[in-house]
Write a structure and sequence with these properties.
This protein is an alpha+beta fold. Strands 1-9-8 form a 3-stranded antiparallel sheet, with no helix packed on it. A 3-stranded antiparallel sheet has the order 2-3-4, with no helix packed on it. Strands 5-6-7 form a 3-stranded antiparallel sheet, with no helix packed on it.
Length: 200
């Protein structure tokens, strides 16, 4: 009888020790597992950003942040759009047809470099050395010349881009402004950092 009691007690002690030991290992591993996971800040830094641009008036621009980069959303006027198509303007551009494929997704490889002609969504960093250009929508200002129809001017080294983010010839910037992946969730909301899945 005493031998059977000792055997039961031994089995109970082994089981209890295993459970407690297993729990201790699990608790001890939590800091190591959480250390391997990306931080909340790191996850949010690369996450898509949803932007409501319903208050943008024609000719106005807003700036938001995605992946620690400034992003512009510009609402172009009908006059802006027609100016972008002028042959005399296109002759002054280094890459009017957006042939450098790395500068935009396929759906933005068009004369407006956008999904919807009225709205430009672009990374607001000069492709020369990463300065932030200034938005210069006025026509023919004294400092930019009579042929200026509105666009972006980089104050760091003088690069110029039109209102489709296309770079001018004979400036330090080698390529057009980069168009990030994005799609329109609705008429007034855009999701930046993600492309819309193609429905099959």
């Amino acid at each position: 009888m005493s031998h059977q009691t000792d055997f039961k007690r031994r089995r109970f002690l082994i089981a209890a020790t295993s459970v407690v030991g297993g729990g201790g290992i699990a608790l001890a591993s939590i800091p190591f597992i959480s250390y391997m996971q990306p931080s909340a800040r790191a996850r949010s830094a690369g996450a898509p950003v949803e932007v409501d641009f319903s208050k943008l008036e024609p000719g106005q621009q807003m700036t938001i942040e995605w992946r620690s980069k400034p992003i512009w959303i510009l609402r172009r006027t009908p006059r802006n759009l027609s100016d972008l198509e002028q042959a005399s303007h296109l002759e002054r551009l280094a890459d009017p047809d957006s042939n450098v494929e790395s500068q935009q997704p396929d759906y933005a490889k068009n004369k407006y470099r956008s999904i919807q002609p009225e709205y430009l969504v672009t990374i607001a960093l000069c492709t020369h050395l990463g300065c932030v250009p200034t938005y210069r929508p006025e026509k023919a200002p004294v400092d930019l010349g009579r042929e200026w129809i509105g666009g972006y001017f980089c104050p760091c080294h003088g690069s110029k881009f039109d209102l489709a983010g296309r770079v001018f010839k004979k400036v330090p910037a080698p390529t057009n402004l980069v168009i990030p992946p994005h799609y329109f969730v609705s008429d007034t909301v855009v999701l930046i950092g993600e492309e819309k899945a193609i429905e099959l």
